Amino acid sequence: MNRIDRLYMEMIRFYQGDPRHIQHFVKVHSFSRLIGQAEGLDEEQMYILEAAALVHDIGIKIGMEKYGRSDGKVQELEGPAAAREMMTRLGFRENVISRVEYLVGHHHTYKDIDGLDYQVLVEADFLVNYFEDDLDKEHIRKSAEKIFKTETGKKIVKEMFFPETFQKSETWAQDALQDLEDFIEEQGIYIRQ
Ligand SMILES: [Fe+2]
């Protein structure tokens, strides 16, 4: 198992008995990975993004245990040190730990987003929270217009919540066939029928 997957298993253990929070970070990790790849983040940025997505809500449990609340402020206060402790134990490099610590400590702050890893993490968290918090469409639309910056994130939010913006044309099947024929002609490929 690679180090990211060990962190994944460790976060499942951390939230043992709490499937809601486990499934939350699983989804945020999956959307982060997808958006990050599509937006061309390099290997190091992807590594940081994946680690940050897995641990981003680590402060919720600690906040609940310590103060009986888990708002953004408590998370940003308690999350970074917990993330550092877990990642140090698993042997992550210092530069990775310190950026993840920063992202965990800022993921509820939406101004001054200072990198694609940060932007993608925020978008992935919103994609999941819109659904899990059962927000109405108007709220989602207004929020998404402010938050989403990447083309991939914008596409996913539209596909998932506003499919009417992607209605297929009446002739989509014929169009696709015509595109294929044009391509074959362009390439000079002969297909025997
Ligand atoms: Fe989250």
Bound molecules: fe (ii) ion
Strand percentage:
under 5%
What is the domain tally? 1
> In angstroms, what separates the terminal alpha carbons?
47 Å
Large-scale geometry: globular
Q: For the record, what is the CATH homologous superfamily label?
A: Hypothetical protein af1432
What Rg do the Cα atoms give? Answer: 20 Å
Q: Which range best describes the helical content: under 10%, 10-25%, 25-40%, 40-55%, 55-70% or over 70%?
A: over 70%
Q: Any idea what the CATH architecture is? A: Orthogonal Bundle
Helices, by number, come to 10
CATH level-1 class: Mainly Alpha
- The overall pLDDT average reads 92
Order of helical and strand elements: HHHHHHHHHH
Tell me about the largest β-sheet.
none
State the total count of DSSP E strands.
Answer: 0
Q: Predict the CATH topology.
A: Hypothetical protein af1432
Structural class: mainly alpha
Q: What are the low-pLDDT stretches, counting only 5+ consecutive residues below 50? A: none
